[in-house]
Amino acid sequence: MKIILGITGSAAAYKGAELTRMLVHAGASVHPVMTRAGAELLGPKLMHALTGNRPVTDLFDDPSPYAHIELIEDASAVVVAPATANTIAKAAAGIADDALSTVIAAASRVPVVFAPAMNVRMYEHTANARNMASLEALGYVVVHAEAGSLACGDEGRGRLAPVEYVFEEVMRVVWPAKDLARRKVLVTGGGTREPLDPVRYLGNRSSGKMGYDLARAAARRGAFVNLVTAAENDVYLPSTVTVTRVNTAEEMREAALELAPEYEAIIMSAAVADFRPADYSADKVKKGDMPAEVKLVPNQDILAEIGSAKGDKVLVGFAAETGNDIEGEARRKMAAKHLDVIVANRVGGEPGFGTDTIDALVIGSDGRVNSVGVVSKSELAELVMDEIAVILNK
Ligand code: PMT
How far is the centre of ligand 1, averaged over its atoms, from the C-alpha of 24 (Å)? Predict the structure, then answer.
């Protein structure tokens, strides 16, 4: 994966170095192209050290008269972060008068991502707003700036979007497999919490990580995703993921049942509480008033409910198991809930809840067992997307 990273003259230029590190860590070969102002603000030597590639600041430094074409030829994407109003205006108009604008003008066959950063007055200027809209109309991806306090002391929109988010967008754009393009995928994740009073709840150890990795994988492969999550933590996800937050099993059920009709594939990785307390106290229960026993009532099984009216949707379930017959249990759940695919995973130790890895086996729609073993949750998410893509693209 070769990424041409444009650095322009914004106070956020230093964040380009952080983005570089993330891209290099993800395995990208990063080729910096810096405008004159960008090279004033962020040292080309630092970018050289971070990438191993000498930054291009002037095309005439290269002996080849076709340096801009040679640079772009095998690139996966051009990313301009931060992008100033000046560079945005030039790109919107197709002007090529320095190394970076010439490379952008030559990028007709590779995706281009702009992450604007500038003072709020410049960001809000009608000309800049028009130019950013032109970039989107030209098919470029714009990662819009966020509001906050700016380097110059002003408050308002113009601050570079978090580099983690820019990174997510770049990875979505450059991801090679697009076999779920424009498909609609619903994912659930996290562990539901069943309240006893405003302070206490019954919960489980699910961190929501598996759900985040599934949502990210589907989005990278081109899907529009809705992630219904009960996880507490926030992570950065690509722009094509909508996050629906819930707390309880009943809230997750309502959200999933309302959304389900619109979605072609549904993946239930959430650890939904099977029971909830029968009684809820609107006031915090005092220590002395704690009941000796808590009566529980069953929650409805969301996946079974969706499976009973499955139609031509692709349904993927997870089975969290601790016993000896993981495959048998998974097959039983697969049949009972009318699933196309089930992921059975061992929990109760490491790997399991909250870890980056998972010990899993996947049973596919033809009954075939893929004993995956211990892999990262992001790798498992790719395997799940492979299964879904085969069924949807049949
Ligand atoms: O979030 P992490 O920390 O990354 O952990 C990931 C995980 C261990 C939670 C995940 O890999 C996992 O195993 N999720 C399923 C947990 C679970 O509830 O398994 P189950 O065997 O009890 O349920 C079987 C299936 O029915 C699941 O798809 C579950 O979402 C669904 N279900 C269960 C109960 C219920 N009331 N409604 C449901 O839809």
Answer: 34
Exposure b/e, 302-323, CB count within 10 A at least 16 = b: bbeebbeeeeebbbbbbbbbee
Q: Where are the domains of the chain?
A: 2-174, 184-392
Distance, CA of 128 to CA of 119 (rounded, Å): 11
For the annotated catalytic residues, the residue numbers are 204
**Residue 349 beta carbon below 6 angstroms from any ligand 1 atom:** no
Q: Which atom of ligand 1 is nearest to the CA of 320?
A: 13
pLDDT averaged per 10 residues in sequence order, the chain, 394 residues: 98 97 98 98 97 94 86 96 98 97 96 97 97 98 95 92 98 97 98 97 97 98 98 94 98 98 98 97 93 95 97 97 94 97 94 96 94 97 98 96
List of E strands, 70-154: 77-83, 112-116, 141-142, 146-149
C-beta 342 within 6 A of ligand 1 = no
CB 113 near ligand 1, within 6 Å: no
Does the domain spanning 2-174 belong to CATH 3.40.50.1950?
A: yes
* Distance in Å, CA 310 to ligand 1 centroid: 18
Whole-model pTM: value is 0.96
Task: Classify domain 184-392 by CATH architecture.
Answer: 3-Layer(aba) Sandwich (3.40)
